[in-house]
Specification:
mainly beta, three-stranded antiparallel β-sheet
Length: 90
């Protein structure tokens, strides 16, 4: 099984260990069986309030791929997130 190497990122799929049963035997599997981890949608909006102040908001959703579903035992949930940020330069 090939291991997906995402150096420098937050995802390290080769650390996903789980128990697998085949032919009546229990085996510990390390890594994911498919490199398709997820499909992501990210929307961001920035509004300048003054020349020195701006407001940024965003929303994202991640749909698990075959690699994530296999590591999670199938049926992994969608991940969602939102953020709001105010930046003031002085």
């Amino acid at each position: 099984m090939d291991k997906l190497d995402v150096r420098g990122g937050k995802v390290e799929p080769w650390r996903a260990t789980r128990e697998d049963f085949s032919d009546g035997l229990s085996t510990i599997v390390t890594g994911v069986t498919d490199v398709h981890l997820s499909d992501d949608v990210f929307l961001e909006y920035t509004r300048f309030i003054t020349p020195n102040t701006y407001l940024t908001g965003g929303v994202s959703i991640s749909f698990p791929g075959d690699g994530t579903n296999s590591a999670a035992g199938g049926g992994a949930p969608n991940w969602t997130g939102v953020f709001l940020k105010v930046v003031i330069h002085y």
